[in-house]
């Protein structure tokens, strides 16, 4: 008699009985998102990814500052990439939309949020968060992060991890809103560094800058003498994110 083996508990028995290929088609859909987004965005460099809360309305000081930062970046020759939604994402797109360089929205399909604000020269729609997050990093020469919630913190943690571990090239990571971010920075310094969870030098990956003009200047200063184009080694890193 042929010996049989029990299905390991880690395997979903229902998945083994699936005959309609739903999981395989989902993988194909993910691949299609990567391919489409890469094709749509491959000519946008240099670009800056701008993040912030979806809940801040027009007229809020953070909204006005985000719009000003994006306009300056756009006029300085940077494509501006945002999450494409409302709030500070809209402010980033709106500022860039009125400038000289493209306003790009990476729109995520959410049940509680309409997809895409109206201020987008280039719009790419995503169903999968991780495909969208990769595009924020892959095409950015800098990150500008304004106050926000879990999504903003997620993007901040993503780029810090990729740069710290050497999976991504070093880029400026600029926090805007010192009163908002200082508590987090103090916690990182006192707790993460203090308990050996990160190195003291890892704090150098972040900087707080308030003035929009100073943000643009800091980005240019970072690339002074080397240019915005990734080196061959950096391109290899980006292909292996």
**Count of distinct strands:** 7
Strand order of the largest sheet: 4-3-2-1-5-6-7
Q: Helix and strand string, N-terminal first?
A: HHEHEHEEHEHEHEHH
**Helix proportion of residues, in percent?**
40-55%
Structure description:
The chain has 241 residues and is of the alpha/beta class. It has helices at 13-16, 22-41, 61-75, 88-97, 129-138, 150-164, 178-193, 212-223, 232-239, and strands at 47-51, 79-82, 103-108, 122-126, 142-145, 173-175, 206-208. Strands 4-3-2-1-5-6-7 form a seven-stranded parallel sheet, sandwiched between helices. β5, α6 and β6 form a beta-alpha-beta unit. α3 (61-75) runs parallel beside α4. The protein is globular. It starts with 12 loop residues before the first helix and ends with a helix.
